[in-house]
């Protein structure tokens, strides 16, 4: 797998068809993952996931799978999307078994650094469900600040220093 960048404990690799089983397990875990990343509650099929991953590959999306350095185990995916010039949105999903181990904070800090230093970004935004205070706290620890809010979402940003 093509390693794009690394942090202390994580290898960030290009999204790949090889990891489809791991992707499906993650996105179809409604209670621990899916409910935090979208309103969709239907199970993704293998064909839907293959189509999605192929589209990300074809469009050279800035989507990376995270692998634990010491074991090679799949941690989750992280992505810059909706890029407009020097701005992009950030999204992250971590498998249930890899949550609560510090990977989210490490991954966010690493990709923000990568975005500013390597991808030419000046502003990174994200939206998180307002009831996901755990995630809001992690984003704040990584330098993100709230700039807007609705009853459903908190909108956060970090800018290049």
- SS content category: alpha+beta
The top level CATH class name: Alpha Beta
CATH fold-level name: Aminopeptidase
* Low-confidence spans: none
Count of folded domains: 1
Provide a count of the helices: 5
Largest sheet: 8 strands, mixed
CATH architecture: 3-Layer(aba) Sandwich
Q: Span from first to last CA?
A: 32 Å
Q: What is the assigned CATH homologous superfamily?
A: Gcn5-related N-acetyltransferase (GNAT)
Describe it for me?
With 161 residues, this protein is of the alpha+beta class. The protein has a single domain (3-159), classed as Aminopeptidase (3-Layer(aba) Sandwich). It is 33% helix and 34% strand. It is built from five helices and eight strands, in the order ββαααβββαβαββ. The protein has helices at 20-27, 30-37, 46-58, 103-117, 133-141; strands at 3-6, 10-14, 62-68, 74-84, 87-94, 123-129, 145-149, 153-159. The chain has an eight-stranded mixed sheet, with helices on both faces. Strand 4 (74-84) and strand 5 form a beta hairpin. Helix 1 crosses helix 3 (46-58). The longest helix has 15 residues, at 103-117.
């Amino acid at each position: 797998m093509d390693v794009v960048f690394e942090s202390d404990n994580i290898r960030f690799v290009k999204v790949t068809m090889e990891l489809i089983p791991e992707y499906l397990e993650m996105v179809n875990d409604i209670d621990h993952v899916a409910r935090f990343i979208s309103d969709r509650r239907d199970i993704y099929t293998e064909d839907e996931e293959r189509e999605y991953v192929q589209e990300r590959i074809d469009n050279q999306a800035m989507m990376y799978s995270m692998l634990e350095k010491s074991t090679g185990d799949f941690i989750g995916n992280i992505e810059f999307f909706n890029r407009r010039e020097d701005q992009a949105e950030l999204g992250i999903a971590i498998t249930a078994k890899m949550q609560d181990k510090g990977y989210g904070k490490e991954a966010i800090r690493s990709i923000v650094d990568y975005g500013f230093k390597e991808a030419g970004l000046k502003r990174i935004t994200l939206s998180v469900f307002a009831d996901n205070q755990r995630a809001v706290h992690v984003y704040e620890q990584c330098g993100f600040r709230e700039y807007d809010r609705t009853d459903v979402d908190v909108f956060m940003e970090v800018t290049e220093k």
